[in-house]
Amino acid sequence: MYRWKTDVIEQHMQQIPGVSKVTVNGPGGDVDTDNIVLTVDGSDEKIYIAGFEVDSMSELPDKSDVDVSMVELTDGQCGSGGLNSGDFRTAQAFIHVRQYFVVNGADVVDSMKDYF
Length: 116
Known about the structure:
By secondary structure, the protein is of the alpha+beta class.
């Protein structure tokens, strides 16, 4: 399990090299956390992050401070998720973001839809 804390993640994402803006949106559904959108510096491309829970089909009790099974990380350019961009800046920022989550114990996946 990974402890998703939106406010902490938001602060850390602002420190990621190549990220110019961090936006927190509400969850996309019952089993996912707040969604975080990163704007890549010097690019129109974005990186999308959300935690989600696969062990329970019930709604998460808190969308901003909750244990999650996995973290979805995608550039939103392909339905299969993950990194699909050909932009070097996006790729670099994506790798930094992925490593942040991996180092902190998250199981990072390309798309949550593969689990439902």
